[in-house]
Amino acid sequence: MASNKQEVSDKVKVVVRCRPFNQKEKMMCHKQVVMVDEIRGTITVNKLENPHEPPKTFTFDTVFGPDSKQLDVYNLTARPIINSVLEGYNGTIFAYGQTGTGKTFTMEGVRAVPELRGIIPNSFAHVFGHIAKAEGDTRFLVRVSYLEIYNEEVRDLLGKDQMQRLEVKERPDVGVYIKDLSGYVVNNADDMDRIMTMGHKNRSVGATNMNEHSSRSHAIFTITIECSEKGVDGNQHVRMGKLHLVDLAGSERQGKTGATGQRLKEATKINLSLSTLGNVISALVDGKSTHVPYRNSKLTRLLQDSLGGNSKTMMCANIGPADYNYDETISTLRYANRAKNIKNKARINEDPKDALLRQFQKEIEELKKKLEEGEEEVISTSVVLARAS
Ligand SMILES: Nc1ncnc2c1ncn2[C@@H]1O[C@H](COP(=O)(O)OP(=O)(O)O)[C@@H](O)[C@H]1O
Ligand SMILES: [Mg+2]
Fold it and tell me: Where along this sequence does the record place binding of ATP (predicted)?
């Protein structure tokens, strides 16, 4: 139904995923300190150095052990959010955790291997599978954008000029947005995949070490889905859902990596976005704060709606299984534990001011009229409406 204005109070859903031991950890005979109980939804961490200290146990909505399959992670965490976005809600999926714990594996995975695909590529097939099944005169318009925040600067990964830095702006009618960010209209899952590859290539532009770069930058892949349908009032209504898929910078503290100089500056700035994210979460859940510091970093400004606002949000906290990561693992679990208490208010976005579908439909109607009237005009329209058939 297009005329549903219902607001649902949703808590941010928090899940934890523990990756398997890697080759190096096996070789160095690191000990396993993380136990995952998928049935109870608990993560228990032991402190080996101090056997008298009782193990710490944390409970979450869902937890995934080292043998978890990408598709199960998708079905249990992302699928319901993507379904909501197809109905016109906003959605956000985050991966949070120390570098090397599987954030990118969870969000992207290995795109060329179907069973190793992560949340982002699995969502492509899901979105277009849904569109293919839509009936009647329902029309969809899907577009994507892809950006990176590095050193508190926003770069358009799909932009023509990779040297350009973009501004974060705000307008009362559409909220926070990025000026001049490219948006590509896509017609199928392959289009999306190609665009993602294009953005990927740009992620490494200017980076001397791609791993270092990706562990210090935040990447946001956004899919905007507009759907036009006849409502109960007999008129066409547009609903628009925005899905942010976020691969955050590594959450390890700079002390551990021994960063100095330029590297330290980067670490501080990354920590500005990440620590602001932490402060935003604290302010939202402590019940006393009257001020939530969204404006203190680019990341939290862009994701303002995702935390405490109009969005269905899921955070995946990624951790490693081994003893030498004990401190980081506990810190990630504490962070995730706090995030469980954030309350959002998601609603279907009906007839939003920035919908393109209505604008395009108007243009197409006008062009059709002109054609019928026999006007000799060169018709060029850069958009193809994904038609439900
Ligand atoms: N659940 C998992 N199963 C198998 N391999 C994983 C898993 N999670 C991470 N890995 C592997 O561990 C390495 C680090 O993961 P990555 O996603 O790059 O970490 P991050 O993005 O958090 O820095 C990669 O080689 C990745 O393939
Ligand atoms: Mg990564």
Answer: 97-104
